[in-house]
């Protein structure tokens, strides 16, 4: 029998918020019917206007907080709620860390059916603001013809003009100001997405946190850049640490921000930065982790869980530009990194050269194809690290890894749901989840990164427990 839906669109209800959703939204019930309410917090009572009703749940707008939570804080950013960037700036930072941990724990229990697994407290940041080393902002025009540079509003292509974004490195605000001044002074037209007219499409700013080197990239619809000397002078005179000014020419009708053609207008074609002791050359198109402080924390955890002694063969599946591989190479005999994107592997090879690493080999291809090939050639890993995209690992890869019998597997994940699914497969194949460490890489947003240690149950029983038993017997 179909149950009657107890809420109606555009009607208002008083709702007790009983949980938090994946995107940091509050969840409440009206006669047992679930309603998601962005901006509401568990423990609050709120007046909510229903915006949409589906078969099993609805979405509501927070109209009034009748009983506030003590976890609620005033968001520092005046654009919070309008801009699509941060979603949980209204939550006390400690509470942000708690809900991220809980999200991981819930996924392990609900999806993975893994009971009693140790999930550590989320490792947070000392300063959970200004942590991003890269910003890419669309440039456009408002309805009055004013230049706007900022972020897209949630689920739209309207640019919200932003003077200051609190999760970006401060220097980007100054660059945006100077670009606007230059565009206004010389009447440089911003790009119009619908008409495919105008010149300046995006501005990208990158900063090396350890080196202080700054790169500015102006993305243009076409080759010409009138009055570019004035722009260069303004940036060079006012931006401390400026190292590189680049024009990226993107004349395509596309949502992709950068195209492949880069012209160096001033300075070098790249900047450098470090993660730990490793040096990286960062060009406009190369991938580099956006939160370098927490990346070092995350990779430190990977290394701790890998527990390398120096003589191991290690596989780094989904290796990207090989940053984890470099960390692993310092403590192992040989690392094999596998990544599907050719350019990322070119970067990985360059990165290992810059750092004089000779025991890392990189392979272009799908992990689920290349790892079994390595194993079939007789290259057997002692430790395997996987860091897949959101959709997680292919089952066939997990099967191949488990068959090759490594002592440990370290799983780095950006999606607790697929992580839990995969850990359950590992468990079926003899790999127990030993420790789970969430790390906050994207403060003020609902994303959570997790590092997990799995150990080979058979190896552990035989080698570790067996050894302890033997030592006890010898002592007696
Ligand atoms: C979460 S990133 C990990 C990057 C890297 N480990 C790091 O820390 O910078 C996932 C990577 O997997 C790559 N990828 C996606 N599917 C793949 C597959 N089937 N086999 C190998 N790599 C894949 C993506 O291109 C991306 O670089």
Brief descriptors of the model:
Rossmann fold, 10 helices, alpha/beta, 476 residues, seven-stranded mixed beta sheet, OB fold (Dihydrolipoamide Acetyltransferase, E2P), 3 domains
SSE map:
Blueprint: E1 12-20, E2 26-30, E3 33-37, E4 45-53, E5 57-67, H1 93-110, E6 134-141, E7 147-152, E8 159-161, H2 171-185, E9 200-207, E10 214-220, H3 228-238, E11 242-249, E12 261-267, E13 271-275, E14 278-282, H4 292-306, E15 313-317, H5 323-329, E16 334-339, H6 342-354, E17 360-364, H7 367-376, E18 383-386, H8 395-403, E19 408-413, H9 416-428, E20 431-439, E21 449-456, H10 457-475
Parallel strand pairs: 3-5, 10-11, 15-16, 15-18, 16-17, 18-19
Antiparallel strand pairs: 1-2, 1-4, 2-3, 4-5, 6-7, 6-9, 7-8, 9-10, 11-12, 13-14, 19-21, 20-21
S-adenosylmethionine binds next to helix 5, strand 16 and helix 7.
């Amino acid at each position: 029998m179909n149950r009657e839906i107890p809420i109606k669109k555009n009607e208002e209800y008083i709702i007790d918020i009983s949980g938090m959703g994946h995107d940091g939204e509050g969840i409440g019930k009206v006669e047992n019917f679930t309603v998601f309410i962005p901006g509401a917090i568990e423990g609050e009572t709120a007046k909510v206007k229903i915006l949409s009703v589906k078969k099993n749940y609805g979405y509501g707008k927070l109209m009034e907080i009748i009983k506030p939570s003590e976890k609620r804080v005033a968001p520092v950013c005046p654009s919070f709620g309008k801009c699509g960037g941060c979603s949980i700036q209204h939550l006390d930072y400690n509470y942000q860390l708690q809900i991220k941990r809980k999200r991981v724990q819930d996924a392990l229990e609900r999806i993975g059916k893994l009971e009693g697994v140790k999930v550590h407290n989320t490792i947070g940041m000392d300063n959970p603001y200004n942590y991003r080393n890269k910003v890419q902002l669309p440039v456009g025009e408002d309805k009055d013809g004013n230049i706007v540079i900022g972020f897209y509003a949630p689920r739209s292509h309207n640019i919200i003009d932003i003077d200051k974004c609190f999760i970006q490195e401060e220097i980007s605000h100054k660059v945006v100001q100077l670009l606007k001044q230059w565009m206004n002074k010389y009447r440089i037209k911003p790009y119009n997405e619908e008409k495919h007219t105008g010149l300046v499409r995006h501005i990208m700013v990158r900063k090396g946190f350890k080196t202080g080197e700054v790169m500015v990239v102006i993305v243009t619809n076409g080759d010409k850049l009138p009055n570019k000397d004035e722009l260069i002078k303004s940036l060079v005179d006012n931006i401390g640490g400026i190292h590189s000014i680049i024009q990226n020419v993107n004349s395509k009708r596309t949502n992709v921000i950068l195209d492949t053609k880069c012209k160096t207008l001033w300075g070098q074609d790249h900047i450098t930065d470090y993660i730990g002791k490793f040096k990286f050359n960062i060009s406009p198109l190369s991938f580099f982790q956006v939160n370098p402080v927490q990346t070092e924390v995350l990779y430190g955890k990977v290394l701790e869980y890998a527990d390398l002694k120096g003589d191991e063969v290690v596989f780094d599946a989904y290796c990207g530009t090989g940053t984890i591989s470099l960390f692993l190479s310092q403590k192992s005999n040989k690392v094999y990194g596998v990544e599907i994107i050719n350019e990322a592997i070119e970067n990985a090879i360059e990165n290992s050269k810059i750092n004089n690493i000779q025991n890392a080999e990189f392979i272009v291809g799908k992990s689920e194809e290349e790892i079994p090939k390595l194993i079939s050639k007789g290259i057997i890993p002692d430790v395997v690290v996987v860091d897949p995209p959101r959709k997680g690992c292919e089952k066939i890869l997990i099967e191949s890894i488990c068959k090759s019998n490594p002592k440990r597997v370290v799983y780095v994940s950006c999606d607790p749901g697929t992580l839990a699914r995969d850990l359950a497969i590992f468990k079926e194949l003899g790999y127990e989840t030993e420790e789970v460490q969430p790390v906050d890489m994207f403060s003020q947003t609902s994303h959570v990164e997790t590092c997990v240690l799995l150990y080979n149950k058979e190896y552990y029983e035989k080698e570790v427990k067996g050894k302890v038993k033997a030592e006890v017997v010898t002592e007696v």
